[in-house]
Amino acid sequence: MSLLHLPDRRLFLGSLAASFFTVKGAFAEQLFATPRLTEGPFYPDKLPLDQDNDLIIINDSITPAVGEITHLTGRVLTASGEPVKDATVEIWQCDANAVYLHTRDSGPKAAQQDKHFQGFGRFSTASDGGYRFRTIKPVPYPGRPAPHIHFKVKKGDRELIVSQLMMRGFDGNLRDGVFNGVRDVIDRELLVTDFKPIPDSKTGELSARFDIVLGRTPDERNVRG
């Protein structure tokens, strides 16, 4: 886990591959918060009946979604590194044909929508703050050259963060308006992760780990544990 002095944030390049960072000094042992990004226009306007954490299979269907199966895992943490238990992590993304689960998108593109992709899922974090989803590797689409997965974290009725995770090193990232709007190199690194082949997977499945660090707020104590 890398330690950073705040005045040198833009000069620090050596450990950008770390999943999150800490800072020294007056903010000792504080993790850098995951940057917030726009929710976007396609948070589902009608949630699916199946809202579990497996987006590949809908209900009892035997037909899986099209795409590269990805196991997305991580933890939700406070800025001080405390795990956030019983938080709700939601993810949503377009299918392999670039269609979202939203009437403004899936309506006009009904013929190309993958009816076997759930498009949205939820998971309640464990005692260690852990979450997991089975989904597909995100794909680019016109207007968004950076493949991404939207996510939202809630605790009870409180919305704690809305953002997006993206693929480290993807060529389209720097042409993407949302990603390009994040000017700080460290903040950009906090929004990306690697999608790695799972060793010995006979179907070419991938894994991706993404830790979500919540910013400090005056009532941070209310989102712990």
Automatic annotation (TrEMBL):
Enzyme Commission code: 1.13.11.3
GO molecular function: ferric iron binding; protocatechuate 3,4-dioxygenase activity
Presence of the UniProt keyword Oxidoreductase in the record: yes
Cross-referenced Pfam families: Dioxygenase_C
InterPro entries: 3_4-PCD, Intradiol_dOase_C, Intradiol_dOase_core, Intradiol_RC_Dioxygenase
Superkingdom classification of source: Bacteria
Domain Intradiol ring-cleavage dioxygenases: 39-214
Keywords, sorted A to Z: Dioxygenase, Oxidoreductase
CDD domains noted in UniProt: 3_4-PCD (cd03459)
EC class: oxidoreductase
Keyword Transferase: no
Family label: Belongs to the intradiol ring-cleavage dioxygenase family.
Record protein name field: Protocatechuate 3,4-dioxygenase beta chain
Species per Swiss-Prot/TrEMBL record: Caulifigura coniformis
Lineage of origin: Bacteria, Pseudomonadati, Planctomycetota, Planctomycetia, Planctomycetales
Gene that this sequence comes from: pcaH
